[in-house]
Amino acid sequence: MKMRLMADAVVFDTYAERYVPSGYHGPFGLKESFEAMSKIEGLHGMGLTWPTDPLPSDPDKLVKMFDDYGLKPGDCTVINYDDKKWKHGALVTTEKNIRQDNIRLCKEAVDFAAEIPGTKVMVWPAHDGYDYPFQTDYSVAWKNMVESFQDICSHNHDVTVCIEYKAKDPRQRFYIGNIGKMMALFNDVGMENLKGVIDTGHALQCQEGLGEDVIFLTEHDKLGIVHLNDNYRDADPDLIFGTIAFWDNLEFFYYLLQTDYDGTIEIDYQNPREDRVKSLKLAVDNIYMYKDFAEKLLKHKKDINENSLNYRFVDNMELIKKILFK
């Protein structure tokens, strides 16, 4: 596995919220973001969005801007969730003009990504769900979801489009609410360039095993993008990776390092009450710490795997503790 570690620009946000609409910090300019990221050892670049503002939309100018700071552009997230027009969903809505507007936006992102080698397009169906029984037609919604992704993926078969699944928030139920529903969608869409995002926080919120998810998507050739954050499995507050679910995060890296995954690993958290630059440094340090831990375990892979095959959990825990902490 190659480590291409990126950070989402949201890590330098003002962190406005409904309780503190003015945010916890002042604005953090684009130049400040680039300068801060360029000074953090082990961080390779920043994630992109479409529309690209405040970054330039011209791919050549954008790549040059990154080059000037010794950074690389990451994957491109379609911003199809920040306007009230998407309230009934961008991919499933029966409002044909709204759905076509989203498809157009996604295709523009695909065209943009095609000009930047290695860049994938990420779609988060943030409003594609429901809140109440009898609120929506499930059959029509699923049909629209399938057709939307078929249209988007057909636009350029050489660009990988990735779905970020989530259980809830902002909707109480997402149509693509877990890894299984995402796999069902892959099957119905039938496009090889449609893949999935493992957002560790979303997977934890779904009560999934992070290591199992890595293996599941890898063995189906559907692991497209990795997002790292953390939580207590009850919600998705996007806490700093490696601060809560220690064993889950350790097993995640143990299995991820055994794959040939060569996509980006994107830091995706919110830490409003702390220093933004220090928080990002902590996130980067934590990721490399888990990578180092997993590499130590892999030197004992034969014993760990043998214990797993023979259901000797206690033996594995004693072995792992000995390797890491003694």
Residue share in β-strands:
5-15%
Low-confidence stretches: none
- Could you spell the SSE succession in H and E letters? EHEHEHEEHEEHEHHEHEHHH
How many domains is the backbone divided into?
Answer: 1
Number of strands: 10
Q: How much helix, percentage-wise, in residues?
A: 40-55%
- State the CATH class: Alpha Beta
From the alpha carbons, calculate the radius of gyration and give it in angstroms: 20 Å
Main sheet summary: 8 strands, parallel, barrel
Shape summary:
globular
Separation, N- and C-terminal Cα atoms: 27 Å
What value does the average pLDDT take? 97
CATH superfamily: Divalent-metal-dependent TIM barrel enzymes
**CATH fold naming:** TIM Barrel
Report the structural category. alpha/beta
Which strand order spans the largest sheet, edge to edge or round the barrel?
A: 1-2-3-4-6-8-9-10
Tell me which CATH architecture applies here.
Answer: Alpha-Beta Barrel
Question: How many DSSP H or I helices?
Answer: 11
